[in-house]
Design brief:
With about 425 residues, the chain is of the alpha+beta class. It is about 20% helix and about 35% strand. The chain is built from six helices and 23 strands. The strands form four sheets. Strands 11, 14, 15, 16, 17, 18, 19, 20, 21 and 22 form a ten-stranded antiparallel beta sheet that branches. Strands 6, 7, 8, 9, 10 and 23 form a six-stranded mixed beta sheet that branches. It has a five-stranded antiparallel beta sheet with strand order 1-2-3-4-5, covered by helices on one side. Helix 4 crosses helix 5. The chain is globular, with a radius of gyration of 39 Å. About 5% of the residues have low confidence.
Length: about 425
């Protein structure tokens, strides 16, 4: 460049400097509309790993502690925080053996603890930041309406079990007809039952029963029917086909599924005193600890102990009636004079205290101080369906009655001739 004129040398130097500032001396375009080099593509980020969810389920065993259930996932301090969070919803000290639970984890770390409080509700405790949050929620079921039916051979329990039900359904049926049937004294081989009932499912697994919508019990030649109905603001109750309440002032018996070992008598040989004396009572033989329920609404006037009666409870009822429950092994919680009780409340448990040869309940009833035979007492029913809701009751019971009729027809066709005629009660 030394042989070029000075002006041209200066121009070449300026161009070289400009090229250096632009990033090099390579080939380039100077036209504004020339194509641009494509930008380099940004590197694709590696996909994040999906969190690993896991759960383990079990049943609380006798003697299990919170540490035994959750010690593998939580520290001692965290267990304390979790128990504190649950205290206002369902204290973990009230966890019972036999109840299902589940522990959920995410990437191996604790996420939630679920415990079934009862068949309707569960406790859910979830990790929330550095702490825990607890709530009580309803258990979701699929509910299917089904008809369950069967015939009695020796007991209602056995009949329901053979029909695919269980103790829960048998007790519910006995409670519905408890005012009209003593399920030991009145039961006969060949009696039958049917029930239109809500059955709960989790997936395809049965998970207990909901409400019995309608039921029929054929006791010898009596046909008893019951329909569940909410009369206005009253709680649901059971009525017969005409709308009369099945609930009466007194239950037929203070115990369910027991046998009468000694009946009401004006002259009976006492097995301990070895003398003939009146026995104005009904003795129900039952295992020690069997719950004893009051046969009617009333107030406890006595809950004490005597040499002959052992532990006993006396209840005063409307209409001048009193009932006595003798030879109890123990009293129910909070039973004391002045305590108001409702029909069916447990007031004590069968025992053999006092003058008793074995575990049984001696049940007595008096009116105006005079003995009454509980087995022959005609008890008045509660209020019927109100006039304002008769149409709603008829609309609800019509399809249920049709279902029971079809079931009764099928049972009759399968029953040998001469088994007896049905008399509608």
């Amino acid at each position: 460049m030394t042989n070029l004129p000075r002006r041209r040398r200066l121009g070449a130097l300026a161009l070289a400097n400009a090229l250096l500032l632009a990033g090099g001396l390579g080939y380039f375009w100077t036209r504004a509309d020339a194509p641009q080099a494509p930008a380099a593509a940004a590197p694709t980020p590696a996909p994040e790993a999906e969190p690993r969810h896991a759960a383990r389920a079990g049943v609380v065993k006798s003697g299990d502690t919170l540490a035994a259930l959750l010690g593998g996932e939580l520290s001692a301090a965290e267990l304390g925080d979790l128990a504190t969070a649950a205290r206002g919803v369902h204290p973990l000290s009230r966890i019972l053996a036999g109840q299902p639970y589940e522990v959920a984890t995410v990437d191996g770390a604790f996420a939630a603890f679920t415990y079934e409080i009862d068949r309707d509700h569960r406790l859910v405790i979830q990790r929330q930041g550095e702490g825990f949050a607890a709530r009580r929620e309803a258990i979701a079921y699929e509910v299917r309406v089904e008809r369950v039916h069967g015939a009695v051979e020796s007991s209602l329990f056995g009949a329901v079990e053979r029909a695919g039900g269980g103790a829960e359904l048998a007790v519910a049926l006995a409670d519905i007809f408890a005012w009209d049937v003593d399920f030991h004294r009145d039961l006969r081989r060949g009696d039958s039952f049917q029930a239109v009932v809500e059955r709960r499912y989790r997936g395809e697994a049965p998970a207990g029963y909901g409400a019995i919508l309608a039921a029929e019990f054929v006791n010898q030649d009596r046909v008893l029917r019951a329909f569940r109905f909410s009369d206005g603001h009253r709680p649901p109750a059971y009525y017969d086909a005409s709308g009369q309440s099945l609930r009466k002032a007194f239950l037929k018996a203070p115990l369910a599924f027991t046998r009468i070992s000694s009946g009401y008598s004006t002259r009976r040989f006492h097995p301990i005193a070895k003398t003939w004396r009146a026995h104005p009572a009904i003795d129900y033989a039952a295992p020690t600890g069997t719950p004893v329920r009051t046969v009617g609404d009333g107030v406890v006037t006595e809950a004490g102990r005597s040499r002959h009666n052992g532990n006993y409870v006396r209840v005063r009822h409307p209409g001048g009636y009193e009932t006595l429950y003798l030879h109890l092994s123990r009293f129910a919680s909070r039973i004391a004079p002045g305590r108001r009780v409702s029909q069916g409340d447990v007031i004590g448990h069968v025992g053999s205290t006092g003058l008793a040869t074995g575990p049984h309940l001696c049940f007595r009833m008096v009116q105006g101080g005079k003995p009454v035979n509980p087995l022959t007492l005609k008890s008045l029913p509660s209020e019927p369906v109100s006039a304002a809701n008769q149409d709603a009751f008829a609309a609800l019971t019509a399809p249920l009655s049709a279902t029971l009729d079809l079931g009764a027809q099928a049972h009759a066709e399968a029953t040998p001739a001469g088994a007896g005629e049905r008399r509608r009660n």
